[in-house]
Amino acid sequence: MNDGIQEAAMTPIFPGSEDSAGRQATLGVLGGGQLGRMFVHAAQRLGYLTAVLDPDAQSPAGRVSHYHIQTDYDDPAGLTQLAHLCQAITTEFENVPAQALQTLALTRPVAPGAAVVGIAQNRIEEKAHFTACADVSGVSCAPYAVIETRAQLQAVQDERADLLPGILKTARLGYDGKGQVRVKTTDELAAAWAELGAAACVLEKMLPLTAECSVLVARGWDGQVVSFAPQRNVHVEGILAVTHAYAGNMPPALATRARDAAVSIAQHLGYVGVLCVEFFVVEDGSAHGMLVVNEMAPRPHNSGHYTLDACDVSQFDLQVHAMAGLPLPRPRQHSPAIMLNLLGDVWFDGNGQRREPDWIAVLSLPGTHLHLYGKLQARAGRKMGHLTITGPDVASVKTVARRAADLLGLPGLDVS
Ligand code: ADP
Ligand code: MG
After folding, report:
1. Could you write out the three-class secondary structure of the chain?
2. Residue 335 Cα to ligand 1 middle (Å)
3. To test ligand 1's pocket by mutation, which of 94, 130, 180 has the most ligand atoms within 8 angstroms of CB?
4. 311 and 256 within one domain
5. What CATH number is attached to the domain comprising 200?
6. Rounded to two decimals, what is the model's pTM?
7. Which ligand ends up closest to the CA of 127?
8. How confident is the model at residue 402 (pLDDT cuts 50, 70, 90)?
């Protein structure tokens, strides 16, 4: 993979500097969601101007950026304007058209590049990549089969009973558990494939998970790599609910293996920017379980939001440094942390009546850091913000997280 992707020489873009045309150093992002907003905050703190391309006039990042280009992601005029304004460009959402990144890359440094984003957007290519570097990374993905044609469906039905029960996942455009159907029998598999519109899919064996974790890696144009320790993630209905980020959040041997694997996956891709690699811990009869790589996101990740408050360098700082060709500081976590995702559900009571969460009570708890993304409408399942709890030790962080979850109307949430 490295062979196909050039390690480009990159002249650093200094914050606050002006280019030969007298334009102040500006960093751009394709996509205006909450990840873009936190990127914009980090870039501005360093002294850059920022430009966001997102069609939504109210997009979380567009509302806080110096420039907001309100066109579709593949609009030629919008992309031209973004390239004109910016010295380097990144992306913040999963399904940004790879073609748009390619167009921008003709005239500007783009990190991550279209090729790697294209791999991460397609589960078939993603798994092929994980398999290709399994010897180096030391981890494999779940047993799976590709289903793109009726013949492949039939072959899986005839020959791959070992993959059932399994999860049928669309190869493209899935996120937060969308585009997935759990199947137990070959009949259910056929029905699920029809339900997913006979789109290109992978059927993955359902594994007995004991935990899930993710690792954030940042890699520069020059190949320099830094990473964060793995965070343990709890999902509810396919959406991240809680992230545990502290020493002892998982067995140390597994944590080391996950971190090394994520770094080698980024290296093998010739990746530039921030990459999040998600892993399963699978029950295999051993003391700590087996590590299996699940998927990767070519950008900062929801599970890394705690780095804003618990680390001296955040995932967004590293995104800025990497794309601008600045050195990558090795991040240091200074406090144990738990992050609670705040979905739109928190703005409704048990009867579906709208309410304002009791922020006074929540923010009266020690070590609470509230981040709201400026979204105007709360809807069930919509990511509205997050709350990070930091403290002097893990026990007190857990105690405060429990109280905060109760105050927010999330009594069933497992924060232990
Ligand atoms: P998404 O792109 O929606 O995050 P994932 O592939 O990560 O999709 O699946 C969402 C969640 O579903 C995972 O975090 C995990 O909890 C569960 N899951 C996915 N694949 C498997 C599997 N093969 N075995 C067991 N659980 C799985
Ligand atoms: Mg996932």
Report:
1. CHHHCCCCCCCCCCCCCECCCCCECEEEEECCCHHHHHHHHHHHHHCCEEEEECCCCCCCCHHHCCEEECCCCCCHHHHHHHHHHCCEEEECCCCCCHHHHHHHHCCCCECCCHHHHHHHCCHHHHHHHHHHCHHHHCCEECCEEEECCHHHHHHHHHHCHHHCCEEEEECCCCCCCCCEEEECCHHHHHHHHHHCCCCCEEEEECCCEEEEEEEEEEECCCCCEEECCCEEEEEECCEEEEEEECCCCCCHHHHHHHHHHHHHHHHHHCCCEEEEEEEEEECCCCCCCEEEEEEEECCCCHHHCCHHHHECCCHHHHHHHHHHCCCCCCCCECCCEEEEEEEHHHHECCCCCECCCCHHHHHCCCCEEEEECCCCCCCCCCEEEEEEEECCCHHHHHHHHHHHHHHCCCCCCCCC
2. 29
3. 180
4. yes
5. 3.30.1490.20
6. 0.95
7. 1
8. very high
Domain limits for position 162: 143-205
Is residue 238 lining ligand 1, measured as CB closer than 6 Å? yes
Classify residue 132: in a domain, yes or no. no
The pLDDT-based confidence of 22 (bands split at 50, 70, 90) is: confident
Tell me: do 272 and 333 sit in the same domain. yes
Residue 391 belongs to a domain:
yes
pLDDT for res 389: 98
**Is 126 touching ligand 1 by the criterion CB < 6 Å?**
no
Which residue's alpha carbon is nearest to atom 11 within ligand 1? 238
Assess whether the C-beta atom of 209 lies below 6 angstroms from ligand 1: yes
- Domain count of the fold of the chain: 3
Residue 225 counted as domain residue? yes
Average pLDDT over residues 127-152: 94
Q: Are residues 87 and 170 in the same domain?
A: no
In a domain, 133, yes or no: no
pLDDT, one tens digit per residue, over 244-277 is 999 999 999 999 999 999 999 999 999 999 999 9
